[in-house]
Amino acid sequence: MSAPNSSLPNKPIASERVRSADLPVAWIMMLGLIVAIGPLSIDMYLPALPEMAEDFGVSTAFMANSVPAYFVGLVFGQLFYGPFSDRVGRVKPLYIGMTLYVIASIVCATTSNEYVLFVGRTFQALGACVGAVVTRAAIRDRLTAKQTAKAFSIMILVMGLAPILAPSLGALFLRFFDWHSIFWFLTAFGVLNLLLTKFFFFETLTEENRNARPAREVLSQYWDLLKDPRFNYPAIGGGLLMGAMFVYISSASELIMDTYGVSATHFGWLFGMNAAGFVGLTQLNQWLTNRFRILSILRFGAMMQVISAGTLFFVGMFLGTDAWLPLVLSCIFFCIAGLGLTQPNASAIALAFQKQRAGMASALQGSLMFSVGIFGGLLLNLFPVNPVFKIGIAMFALMSLGAYLIWQIDRNLNLDEVG
To answer: Boundaries of each Major facilitator superfamily (MFS) profile domain copy (predicted)?
Structure first.
């Protein structure tokens, strides 16, 4: 049975689907819906941070710590789901993670204590991160390296609507309801993911390709992955480039709303513009992968990000908060949009040579990415400087190191030979 290309598939046995010749667009878009729960959970409540801070009697900067709290859950959750999904398949972890997400979202929606909210956010992430791990691994199970890069671009087209629409949607909820309604919406989205898993997500990992090594060897397998240059350079380099975006997410409300006095509604529009740039370049990436080597596109995108972050660094150093807001936003825009050229391709290279441990590779890649987000969030608190310079320092440092690692990838790496 061939993989369907224009409609959501029935559930044939896994062995009939693995490494299909055609690109299953509808299936990939469905995976994008599942993984969209991550950016929705991160971005939708950002416009509500000042209102939440007032409600809890704390500062906006303190309430923004709920973003790194979410990243903590993403780091550790992915490290669990990766080897678990390599051992039992892709379906069971989705059920477990999404059920946990729904419960944690209800806790966030009903709490009146900021620390309970932080814990709830961490457990939200522990549930939501299963989508990113399993979908990346499922794509690797089924497609070739070049198809994988295209598939990630298609998936980002769907999931990318979340960060574009989420802040504006959150601001819209605030016009008619309070911040609790945002978490009730996220609860409903978690239920939707459970339904998508039940009716449309089929098993992609065949029995013969499952990782039968003892569970006690998980740490050594992760260490083996980290020592593999075919994985570590694209995974860590791509993680540093992507992690810089989470630095921006952590500081966006303080920078744009508190420093420049932008309203919640306009904040949503500005935030969405960056996400739109990211999504737009991922679609351009599909066209580029037919004409250029994946590594060449990855390197070009990394340089685009470094140059933009460096410009922001010098703007913050010399102008600070007197900098023209459109100039600051333009620098951030090209930093974030450049991810459209780096993330699909870095992920494709990092996963290309991992077969029986695709879930672990996907998990470790994601955990590295969000570890950078946590570190970057802490880094922001170390510099007693103006917000523009602060975000410029963090993003420029992370993106420069990420680009350096990308340049260490073997230029002769042949992805066409990967099975």
So the answer is: 27-411
